[in-house]
Amino acid sequence: MGITMVLSLLSGVALFLYGMSLMGDSLKKVAGNKLELILYRLTNTPLKGLLLGTVVTAIIQSSSATTVMVVGFVNSGMMKVAQAIGIIMGANIGTSITGWILCLSYIDGSSGIAQLLSTATISAIVAIIGIIFRTFIKKKPYSDIGDIMLGFAILMIGMQTMSGAVSPLKENPHFVRLLTMFTNPFMGILVGIVFTAVLQSASASVGILQALSITGSITFAAALPITMGIGVGAACPVLLSSIGTNKNGKRTALIYLLNDLFGMIFWSIVFYSVNAIVHFPFMGEIMSPFRVALLNTVFRLLTILVLAPFIGKIEKLVFFLIKDTDEDNEEQADFDLLEERFLNYPPLAITQSQLAVNGMAKKAYKNIRRALALLKDFSDNKFNKIQEKENLIDKYEDKLGTYLMQLNMHDLTPEQSKQTAKFLHTISDFERLGDHAVNISRVAQELHEKSRIFSDAAKYELHVLESALKELLDLTINSFVDEDLVNAAKVEPLRELIGILCNDLKMRHIKRLRNGQCDLNTGFAFNDLLTNYDRIAAHCSNIAVAILELDSSNFDMHEYTKSVRKLKDNNYVSTFDYYEQKYNINGYQPEAEQDTKAAAKNPVKAVEAKK
Fold this sequence. Notes:
The structure is a single chain. The protein is mainly α. It folds into 3 domains: about 5-320, no CATH class; about 325-450, Phosphate transport system protein phou homolog 2, domain 2 (Methane Monooxygenase Hydroxylase, Chain G, domain 1), CATH 1.20.58; about 455-610, no CATH class. The chain is about 80% helix and about 0% strand. Helix 8 (about 120-135) packs antiparallel against helix 9 (about 140-165) and helix 12 packs antiparallel against helix 16. It is elongated and about 95 Å long.
């Protein structure tokens, strides 16, 4: 096999992969969000899910793309794991349609209708129409339709190029001997797995197998194990897509692998056991592109028919393989509290809501603490954990908001109305706290990836400010969970101090920038952190106000806050003075290296020690 032949084969593979990608992506653009809406709205039964998965995958020409979408839906909570199983099974069937489309590239003829149906003619017509749509009709969706046609034409040309490259090999005895090695089922399955994992496309692997079949050297005995392995190898991109998702997202990706793995194991045992007894006469049959397409479809269809009755068992298996932690069970317990049947008993529904909001508050608090820790010790796992928990906090807001609005439609006493109003006000603030945790984590990621560090003075100032922010969060969350009015009253003075500190630190950092002590890039990150800290403090203030205002006859958060700041009583002033002394940022001395190191370890004690 000369270098020219290898390059020709690889160029054909490249054109094929690009054409398939362009066609699939453009099909999704033409469909807009309709495919996604269909996927997660019309999957209330396994049969519907299976049919939808088949149709959608046949349209976008990629079982991996369909499954990756489903992983995203399950990860976001829009779809349950049980719903995803049917779609994934259907995707396994739908992806075999590509093999039949590729059979068009093997239609040849020199005259009449056969010539009109030849690959060259079809590709030429589709390419011409596609380039006209793409170049001269800019209006969507016509330009996207043009891309679909161009993708199809490129795909067909790629198949022709691959077929042309391998055609001379049918006369090569070494190549024929190499292919006969694949009649060993284990070797064939292994080749199918590895080859598809590298290409990250089952359709591409089937296409190449079809191209090789024209050499006349691929028998049924060689094609079957390779086809079995192709399904398992196609799970590689799906498993990669689940990195960074929650446990349900990972379970969904695992289902894709298990479907093909079970199919491979089951049919390997059944088929080769029966063959050992009866010796099937068709094992030596020479495969053609059409026969490869048929084999691929039949194998996938039979696999799903065997597995479909066990959807419930598959769900239990993935939950067994990826177990929930105590923390996961705690989160599910919070959602289980919001039972619709409790809505007819408002006191009970309010108690349940209180417990669920408390769970949300604790999750938001922990996520901010994680983000602050990430600034000092960054890792991708910790970063992904913050993003995962932010999705959970969003889910809390959605479920609690819906539940409380339903509760408001019932007859409530004035006191009960106040309670639900308090929860509705605070869940949006807790959700925003989660958003700021994500913002801080992204600043930490940028600092880590670009190897940027703050000056010693900036580090010290941030340590002091973060200590104040942590105390504010402790006061806010504890006062909310325990309904502690005394601690709630301390929140606003500390919030005011943090606002002043944020403004002061911005001015100090500008001065350092002018003096060349800090660079502009770290200056942006520093400002981003201060902005997020200031907004976190503001949301803490809103939560505390909701607690204090609950006893008032008028629930008007903004008016109450204004009155508190305007009529600062002795308690407010003394509390503010206490925190102003505790979180004094003027204790930093750049020339005192030991003091700086001590301050970095414990900024609050360092400040107090200098007084």
